[in-house]
Structure formats: structure tokens, C-alpha cells
Amino acid sequence: MIDNSQGRCLGVLDVESGKADDFDEYDQEMMRLLAELAVIGMQSLQRYKDLQQTMTKATARGIIAKVGMSGSHWRHQIHGDAILINDHVTAIRNALDHPSLRKIKTNLERIERHANRISKGYDTTGPSMNKAIPQLVNAMLKDRLDNPDYAPILHKSVEVDYRFALAEEAQVKVERKWFFTTLDFLLENANHAMEDSVVKRLTIATREEQGAVVIEITDTGKGIPESALPKLFVEQLKDEDSASSLGVGLLMAREIIETYGGQVMPGRSDLMGTTMVILLPLC
Predict the structure, then answer these.
(1) With contact defined as beta carbons under 8 Å apart, do 31 and 38 qualify?
(2) Region for 211 from its dihedrals, namely left if φ exceeds 0, alpha if ψ lies in -120 to 50, beta otherwise
(3) CATH of domain 129-281
């Protein structure tokens, strides 16, 4: 069977008989036609595969282009808004020279810092191990939680208790911004769980265990239903599965930490509170 379009043999149709001269001219013509049909069938199959591959590539390029265009449009809008925020804040701040208005002026300066950060643009790429660098674990945790700009995420009455058993020089290889994103997801859930708690205490503990860094985040909230625990970091939970806001944020947290060779998982959870655990390889 010859593919005349490419000048190559696609296969051989082998028909045998135990009798001499058993195939007449009609039989030979039918076999020739059968071979031609087989060639047409194989050519059609190959064209179908080529078309599928082309469509897959085109779809992927379309998605990438769409995401890129959306990201570019988003950055352009945010950049413009940030400039307007800066202009308004500057005008208001210049009018707040009276000593009694210094607190308002301080808050406006914080808004201005945020606007400046926005106007510089965000990196819309995802987490990457190639961009990760060694970070001091204990210092990184304190930098995030002790930052005054971070205060709105936690209720003002939340007490933060550090219990660092990990050596101060201990490091993990991560991208700081993406580690902070994971931390934000976990702390926002902890903060939400403690809304109705009399004692609002957040315990941040670190230790080394079998060559890994263990970070435990424990709240004094109302806990997560036992039925929901196996689903955490695996699927997006519905409202009836958990009292906390356990949506796509935890799924993103898992993807981020796994990028750096680690794991994030629930620890204990009961009426006394919940513990979330981050495991990362020790540098």
C-alpha cells in the first residue's frame, strides 16, 4: 500500500491461497481497491491526529494570549487607580498639619505606601522553585506578623504567641511573597474562626523534624468539623462542611508549598481550636 502523496510504503496487504492461480483478475482488482481504501483510511486518521494537535496548540495559545491580555489590562487599570489614590492622599495629607490630626495623617501615609506598591505593578507569574532563595524561617514569620500594615488581617484583640524551637539560622528555600500568600490564607481562616472566641490567641510554633522545618499555626477558634478535615487542601468546601472560609485559598496554599517541595496539612482540630501545619525541606 503506497502513499503517493508522500511516496512511501504504508504497509503490505498479504492474501494467500493454497491453490495455484486461485485469484483471477477480478479478485486482484478488488484487493487493489481494498488496499487503496486502507491507504485513504490511514491518511485520514493521520490528518485527524494532525488537526487535533493543531487545535490543541491553537487553544493553548489562545488561552495564554487571553490571560496575557487580561493581565496587561488589569495592570494598566490598577496602575491608573494607584496614581489617582496617590494624588488624593497627597492633597489631603498636606491639609492635615494640625497636631490633633496626626493619627489620620499616619493612616493616610500607610494608604500611600500601599498605592505606591500597587503602582509599581505586580508580578503575575506563579510560584517557581527556580526563583526561590534561602529564607530565615523565624525571622520571616515575625517580619510578616509584626508588620503594622498586616494588622487589618488579624482582629485587634488577637494575641500572637511565638514558640520558636527552631534555630534562628534555620532556612528554607522559598519565594518570600508566595510564602506570605500561603501564610495569609491560613491566618485569615484562623482569624475568622476566632471571631466569637473569648480568648483570641494565635500561636506560631517552629521546630525541626527529620530534616524538615515544621511550622504550626494554632488558633483558639471553634474548630473545624471532623467530616471536613479529610477534605482540607483537597477540594473546595461548601458552607455546611465548615464554619471557616475554607475555599480556593487552601487549594492555592497547597500548590504554592508543594512547588517548594513541601506540604501543608491540618493538624488537630477540636472545640479548643485548630492547628495547621506547613512542612518545608531544611536548607
Answers:
(1) no
(2) left
(3) 3.30.565.10
Q: What is the pLDDT along the chain (283 residues), one digit of tens a residue?
A: 566 666 667 677 677 777 777 777 877 777 777 777 677 767 666 676 666 556 555 554 554 454 454 455 455 556 666 666 766 667 776 766 666 666 666 666 767 776 666 666 555 677 899 999 999 999 999 998 887 665 556 777 889 999 999 999 999 999 998 999 899 889 888 888 898 899 999 999 999 999 999 999 999 998 887 777 777 777 666 544 443 445 567 888 888 999 999 999 988 888 889 999 999 999 9
- What is the DSSP code (8-state) at residue 270? E
Q: Is 264:233 a contact under the CB 8 Å cutoff?
A: yes
Element holding 279 (H helix, E strand): strand 273-281
Q: Where are the domains of the chain?
A: 1-123, 129-281
The contacts of residue 67 (CB under 8 Å, 6+ apart) are none
Sorted by sequence, the CB contacts under 8 Å of residue 200 that are 6+ apart come out as 155, 157, 158, 159, 194, 220
Name the phi and psi angles at 274, rounded to 5.
Answer: -135, 145
User: DSSP letter at 236?
Assistant: P
Answering whether pTM is above 0.70, one says no
